[in-house]
Design goal:
There is one protein chain. The chain has about 170 residues and is an alpha/beta fold. The protein has one domain (about 1-165): Alpha/Beta hydrolase fold, catalytic domain (Rossmann fold), CATH 3.40.50.1820. Helix content is about 50%, strand content about 10%. The protein has helices at about 25-30, 45-55, 65-75, 95-110, 115-125, 135-160, and strands spanning about 5-10, 35, 60-65, 80-90. A 4-stranded parallel β-sheet has the order 2-1-3-4.
Length: about 170
């Protein structure tokens, strides 16, 4: 492949392109940027297939948190297509029983129309302690969650629960 290397960004749970608002303009200076849709399927294998279907033949891959889980699956399915990899705030390990139980509880809340409660409980865990009272940051996270929606959140969590051990 000649020319700039495309970059595929996979955001985390409940995140949208807004997550990368500051990085995308800088990355575009280096080459094409593709934001993966990680909201349509409820398994890691299907999410990875979806990303691969919309990605170029070779690309650099950046996965944040859940995006890292999807990245591991992409590497299982088509390692030859990934020329560079950045994994941010993610893990190759499967959930512990406690983490799995927490995900199932979040799924139940979202199914009852209580996604806001999931966000209220998650926000302090997602941001640096110095930003826990940052109303503007909270608003961005709330807007992303609203855009993703409860149904997609449930699919994402189901995929997270069923992910493979990537160690």
């Amino acid at each position: 492949m000649t020319g700039p290397l495309p970059v595929v960004l996979i955001p985390g749970l409940l995140a949208t392109q807004q997550l990368y608002a500051e990085q995308i303009p800088q990355l575009w200076r280096l080459g094409p940027v593709i934001l993966a849709d990680h909201t349509r399927d409820d398994s890691m294998s299907a999410l990875a297939r979806g990303v691969l279907a919309s990605a170029p033949s070779r690309f650099a891959l950046i996965g944040l948190s859940m995006g890292g889980y999807i990245s591991f699956e992409i590497l299982r399915q088509a390692p030859e297509r990934v020329s560079r990899l950045a994994l941010l705030d993610t893990t190759a390990r499967p959930d512990t029983p406690e983490q799995g139980a927490a995900r199932r509880a979040q799924i139940a809340l979202a199914a009852e129309g209580r996604l806001g409660e999931v966000l209220d409980a998650s926000f302090p865990l997602l941001v640096h302690h110095a930003r826990r009272h940052d109303a503007a940051l909270r608003q961005v996270l709330d807007l992303m969650a609203e855009e993703v929606g409860a149904a997609a959140f449930i699919r994402q969590q189901q995929a997270n629960l069923s992910r493979a051990d990537s160690r």
